[in-house]
Amino acid sequence: MEWKKTNNVQQFSENVILLYFKELSSKYKSSTLWAQYSMLKSTLNIKHDMNISNYQVLLEDFSRFLNCAPDEKYLLVKAVAVIGFAGACRRDELRRITVDDVQDLNSAMLVKIKNPNNNVYRSCALTGQFYDIFKKYASLRPKDIYETRFFLNYQNGKCTRQVVGINKIGNMAKQIATFLRLPDAEQYTGHCFRRSSPTVGRDLISFQFAY
After folding, report:
1. What is the pTM of this model?
2. What domains does the chain contain, in order, with CATH numbers?
3. Which of 64, 92, 161, 183 has its CA 20 to 30 A from that of 31?
């Protein structure tokens, strides 16, 4: 597999598969991703005796949620999830993101994420569908609000003036799993975003963060 050689990946794992599909998602539509997944599943099953259908968290599940869940109800969850996934964020890091941490570059959204334990920032860029979702939510924030926390509660297609708390963010992974009808949805926690975001090595440029 050429991608494996290029990125100096020594073995297949759930995180490696997630990273591979994360890179593909910036280039292809969900229908193409599904076709790629089907081919990869067959190849790994035949050549490596691996059944990746047993993985609980794969990118096509996430893509299905982004594409199928109605924005009127789930736009906030989507916006939190895309930055949580792309930035490998803890729920407290998501809660602390401010409007000053978000920069719209027109084709990408640059988001600074502060580690509350050491006050060190890292950055990640949202592109493609992730950018579109995040920008749509950002455009709905009230213009005359003085609250600097970026994430505000969202109801019936509109943002309110109340900030999103840490417990609500922690419940979002379960909301995604419930919508997708995944087994044991109650066991999905706010830590799932961080565990699901793959970090295979610093040589993988697409997942290096600027500190």
Report:
1. 0.68
2. 1-211 (1.10.443)
3. 183
Tokens of 63: 């893509």
CB distance 133 to 66 below 8 Å: yes
pLDDT digits (tens, 9 = 90+) for 28-42: 665 566 676 667 767
Q: Are the CB atoms for 84 and 65 separated by under 8 Å?
A: no
CA distances from 118 to 93, 185, 190 (A): 12, 33, 21
Q: Which are the contacts of 57, defined by CB distance < 8 A and separation ≥ 6?
A: 14, 18, 192, 195, 196
Pairing of strands 108-114, 121-127: antiparallel
Place of tokens 């050491």: 118
Residues 77-132 have pLDDT tens digits of: 999 999 988 887 888 999 999 999 999 999 899 999 988 888 888 888 898 889 99
What six digits make up the tokens of 85?
A: 């996934």
**Structure token pair of residue 20:** 């591979």
